[in-house]
Batch of 2 targets.
Target 1
Amino acid sequence: MSSSDSDSDSEKVTCARLGNCEVCDAREAIYTCPKCEVKTCCLSCVRIHKKELECDGIRDRTKFIRMKDFTDTDLLSDYRLLEECARFVYAVRRDEKKKFTRIDKDLPIHLFKLKMAARNRGIALQFLAQNFTRHSVNTTRYHYKTNIISWRVEWIFPNVDTKPLKFVDEKCPEQNKLSRLLDKYLNPNASPFEGSKSLAFYKSAGFSGIKILLKAEKIRGSAKKFFELDPTETLGENLSGKCIVEFPIIFIVLKDHACNFEIITPEDEFESNMKEHDERENIENDVKSKKNESGLEKARQNINEQRKRPRQLLTEKVAQQKKMEIEKEIREEKKKRPKNLLFTTGYSSEESIVSSDSENESSIKK
């Protein structure tokens, strides 16, 4: 028997074991999908099954396998998967960009001083990991000698003909008013710069026709919520009482388009948090009251069961006590009697019975 004949016989056996193609059902199946285990007969059927079932054909290495179906091959696959995970963790620890993504990593001294200075001003300043672009471009600094924070500010003008314009000021002292910082963007007589021609609508509207909005951070739905800022106050006063991630992002919006932005106040956010807290307390109180009620119901049920039980009369108790005493006496008499009369010495069984009867009569007379 040649090798070609053996190969053809093995193919016939596999085809018979797989059955017909599950896609066309016209021919016998040859292939099995590693992921969804669909049996197919040709390449076109493989493509059809991938398109219809949205299958990529890659075996799921974490798929559940029953113990009766678990083989040595599955054990080896799990072992290799664990080795790959260990190598990945080791590589991340060695990577300079990825190993600082831990939350508990201590801040450098200059960032720690900046965070403490912002906290003293009522600003909750938070930093991202070192590999984030927003952290790498941040130029906000705290000048320890002068006790002044110079903020990096991104000004975004969404109401432009094309796409929204973004301008960046690397160092904005906190004691400067917003109107002064925005003067070069909104003043028609200001010196021109790249992109200033696109701000014609803003320059014509002036400060009276715009709204200055700060993007809200670290609150529910923060992508659509904004705080309104006062141009007559300083930058530090406007940021007080708010959360800032790395640096402030400020939107300059025309009043006619302000309806597209959800404007909130710190008081509203505080009230919503208080409402959520109150709702949680009410739910907890309801649960506790229900538990107490259930406990009271159980106690009442026990009392009712005790009441339903029939009371035992005094005569019955006396009768039971006498019965127990008689049984106790019978047990004691049995203990006194010899266990085996054949091996008793000194007296016979009849003498023992007579003596026991005489003792009972004497005890009764006494």
Note: Confidence is low (pLDDT under 50) at residues 308-314, 341-356, 360-366.
Target 2
Amino acid sequence: MVSEFRKQKLLHLFNIFFDIDASGSIERNDFVLAAENICKLRGWKSGDDKYKETLESLIKIWEGLQTAADADKDGKVTADEWVAMWETYARNPNSGADWQLAYCKFMFQLEDAGCDGAIDSEEFSAVYESFGLLREDSVAAFDVMSKGKPKVTWQEFQELWIQYFTSDNPNDPGNFIFGAATF
């Protein structure tokens, strides 16, 4: 059973990063809207290769998410279906589905704007600010997530990722991986 704390984290992710149109469920169009937002952040135009690559990556993530979570096969993922899917993941996070691994990698690459193999506070907070979070909250979240270090590497990010989806301890640094300073 999902704890109230973990449910709050999962719903933060659902509402801020997936249900882009605020319809109450996640649909394919939410991923199109997310791609547009991300490409705007990076300055990529609709005909650019990076724009196409971003959209393709997000549509593949949607297809995997839909297969894993859309229990009633209505083309939408509700908040309840979302939480249930991540609860299944939390039981065995080291064997995540391909789309979950792709999403982890996508987020790291999105945040690593400098392509140096690590995320710094500026890169991190710029992404979350583009999704409507307060910059100062994202900077505070990065400080906790990074344990005060100036950068987070890919290896560290993967460990923090698992912690976000599995931890019930509010003090674990992985809880801050999606830019929120509090839940």
Note: The chain has a mean pLDDT of 94.
